[in-house]
Here is the input.
Amino acid sequence: MKFQGHKVLVIGDIHDSPKIPQDRLTWIGKYAKKTKPDYIIQIGDFSSFDSLSFFQGNDTQQGKLKDAFMVDIESLRSGIQKFNKALGNPSIPRHCTIGNHEMRVHKFEEKIPEIQGLMKKALYDSYHKNGWTTTEYGEFFFIGGVGFVHAPLNIMGREYGGKNAEIQIANDSVHDLVFGHTHKHRDWKAPKIGNSQFVRIINVGCSLPFNHVEEYAKLNMTGWSWGIVELHIWNSHIQESNFISMNRLEKEYA
Here is the structure.
């Protein structure tokens, strides 16, 4: 009997950078080619856009070593094209839920009215001209009644965070939800009163190289997870979830 639901491959925060190898995008593309999902979702922060980092002022030593914006853009385009080539099937819908690091482009451009629209065009062209669709930061993209977003926003318009973010989101959400942002894979199912019976919240972790921790988090309590997540959705719920580690992808597809 043919499966009547949706098979979705979710790629976590990639944080592409000219300084990080892109071979993982080829591995993920090869995995998707083999497993043939109905949809591919990249959960945002495809690129780090360190060139636009507000935490490294241009008058600091680190700031002086930052790449130019277009170097980040060319790296992003290269990564998307590597994935597309490995996938080899342009008919599979590919979608990115814009993350807070892509929002660096928006925020930087807002401060320079003379270039209004130019940087955002470079960003969105990188996706749209390579066959990817996008939704804006904080906006849900729905598949089979399940919402996908980089980071859900709370009543104050801020991202849910902390060790128990999934529990907080489950308390507030009215539908199953898939997100990224914190780089920690977690699967939380919360019972509900009413016809829906439960909501399931899945944090997909990140898709950085295995064991790679970004500089800003080197001294933090991290607990990061490196991989991708395969979901099966039917009856408006996530019914099955499988985490595939970046380490396994490297061993099987490098």
